[in-house]
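hey all, quick one before standup. I had two proteins in the batch that finished overnight and I want to keep them in one place so we stop losing track of which output belongs to which input. First protein below, input sequence then structure tokens straight from the run.
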Amino acid sequence: MKARKSKAADGCDHTFRAIYDHEVEWESDDARGLLKLPSGVKVKVLNYDPVMKRIDFKLRFPAGYVEPAHTHNSWHSILVTKGRMCVAGKDLRPGDYVFGWDIRHGPYEYPDGCEVFVVDMGDAAHVWQKEDFLRHRNTWKPRTAAGKKGVLAHLKKRNSGKV
């Protein structure tokens, strides 16, 4: 049964959706320019309402990835679904939660890779300083072989200044 579009008086899309995960392809964040993060992040957009400025999506961070300390003109709720997210002195695992708004937060480290589900309201574009990001020293140690390899690759990339 195909979902019918339902535009309400408020202009928002009220269409009911039930989506199989495998039906939505992973794409590079660069493809839509949603987050404006250093390269390497994959995005799976599940729902987007430009009137409401709400986007529901999954993110996949490769092993070793560091998300710079940042701000944005939105709030987000994040649920870790796979792997590890290390932020604010916490080693978060599947089922753990993060909330952020327009106050600077991060950096986030993903020493062994991570997938998260995010609900974002507003402009999801990250505002971060390249110099701060390049100076970042990883705090969290990887626990997997893939993580060790990923951390080394991301350190090499950051040290080269190519983000």
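OK second protein, same deal, sequence then tokens:
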Amino acid sequence: MADLPEPAIAREWLQTMTLIRRFEERAGEMYARAKVGGFLHLSIGEEATIVGSARALRDSDYLISTYRSHGHAIVRGTPPENVMAELFGRADGCSGGRGGSMHMFDIARRFMGGYGIVGGNLPIAAGLALASDYEGTEDVTLCTFGDGASNQGTFGETLNLAALWKLPVVFMVTNNQFGMGTALQRHSAVTDLQRKGESLGVPGMRCDGMDVLDTYSVLCEAIARVRAERRPLLVEAVTYRFRGHSMADPEQYRSKEEVAQWRARDPIPAYGDLLVAEGVIDEAAREQIDTQAIARVDAAVEFAEASPFPPAESLYDDVYVLDSSSTGWYSVRTTDPHQAAGEQSRELSPADGDEIPQQMSDALAHGEDAA
């Protein structure tokens, strides 16, 4: 077993894992009450993988996630209030209410988002790592994805380029045993996922994703190697999700007995038991951690409820990048002749006082799209 960190850090890990668990439970409740739209993917059971890996990063490193990303936003420091508001589609959400559950972002904390496309984050992670090389920094990118994504074309393509270009990225496959509702042994010919990058020049490692200490220890080693050698590694974190793939999942592909066996290894009570046994906390402190997490989540729900929806007239905001180096104009066309074009739906002025380029003005005059 890996060594415990100093007491203050050990307690913080338990606090964060507990906060993520209580947040996810409440998010599921809010979804059932129709407060959350779209899809909702919970990470209940994977808290040790989330916290152990993220705590191995520096603040300047990048973390990029999948559609199961609420916990990653929280572990990087995004306030739960803003994460819950994003689930509610409110203006105070971390993505302005425009992303919802699958598209959490907090660039200030170098959390580079969740992505709804399976494997879609892998090439973006390589791009982040390439940018670190261009800028000459020591920054490392940690890219998390599920076992199902290891069968996508983006997996092979990205690992090949990362190895060829010697990019500083740690690819962490969160092996939660199922790609949606398909068991690992049914969707992957190679079930030892740490080996899937070897033929592409990416060595592999494995950690117990149900053990925050082992996850932290292995990720620390992986990140240190990538930072020093400027070459990618693949880490397989073996874990399990206690809930279905999403809130819409009837979970007919696994037995209650299997779930119960994995629940017996629940990472939060297991780690809490260890801290009590080692004298880092007592039972009273343990209960207080849970009480505080529940109170914080209650406050997050209240904050989300009170947050306004984005105004309708902001629909076209941030669709295009308009600045001094990239001039343009909004153009949304409609087949209804009585509807205004997008550029007329709101008072907009060209960036930095630039005039609309002549070709763009001509395009707008002739009813053509321009951007």
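Flagging for whoever picks this up: The two ends are 56 Å apart (CA to CA). Residues 345-361, 367-371 have pLDDT under 50 and may be disordered.
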